[in-house]
Amino acid sequence: MPSIADTMSGHRFASMAGAVLLSALALAACGESAQDKAKAEICTARDEISKQVTKLQGLTISSNTGQEVKGSVEAIGDQLKKIKNAESDLEPERKEKVTAATKSFETQLKAVASGFAASLASGTPEAALKAAAPQLKSALSSLANAYSQALSPVNCS
């Protein structure tokens, strides 16, 4: 007949084994691969960029336009950084596509930002904005087109 000490150590072993098994199952159930996490981060960033591009397209020229454009361009830049940080965890073929898309869009974003800054360089900000309104609208339209061609096709399903 087993002693009380044997029974107690058997129960402890069974309890510890059960706890280890439950922990392993919990980790396996919620464990997301690095590629899955990177894909999710990229898709979230891509969606945020889409929102900012849409916001920029809907702007009307006013005294606040400069700050609104600046804020959206900065937000887009932050999202592009997130995409770049996550790219390294993607499988090589997907990484190549995402990198090319990001570079293409970033080039267009820089062109829009520098053109916008140049248009504000002369005169009062509001007068400069009104004078540059056609160019600004055209640049923002080009940015939306760049998004559609570069980042929109990145598969997030």
Structure in a nutshell:
This protein is mainly α. The chain is 82% helix and 0% strand. Helix 3 (65-87) runs antiparallel to helix 4.
Describe the secondary structure blueprint for this structure.
Elements (H helix, E strand, L loop, with lengths): L3 H27 L3 H24 L7 H23 L4 H28 L5 H26 L7
Helix pairs in contact: 2-3, 2-5, 3-4, 4-5
Tell me about this structure.
Helix content is 82%, strand content 0%. It is an all-alpha fold and 157 residues long. It folds into two domains: 1-31; 33-150, Four Helix Bundle (Hemerythrin (Met), subunit A). 21% of the residues are buried. The model is unreliable at 17-29 (pLDDT under 50).
Q: What is the straight-line distance between the termini?
A: 61 Å
Low-confidence stretches: 17-29
Strand elements, count = 0
Number of helices: 5
Task: Using the coordinates shown, work out and report the CATH topology of the largest domain.
Answer: Four Helix Bundle (Hemerythrin (Met), subunit A)
| CATH second-level architecture of the largest domain | Up-down Bundle
What would the principal axes of the Cα set say about the shape? elongated
Q: State the name of the first-level CATH class of the largest domain.
A: Mainly Alpha
- Count of discrete domains: 2
Percentage of β-strand residues: under 5%
Order of helices and strands: HHHHH
How would you classify the helix and strand content by structural class? mainly alpha
Q: Main beta sheet, described? A: none
- Helix percent band: over 70%
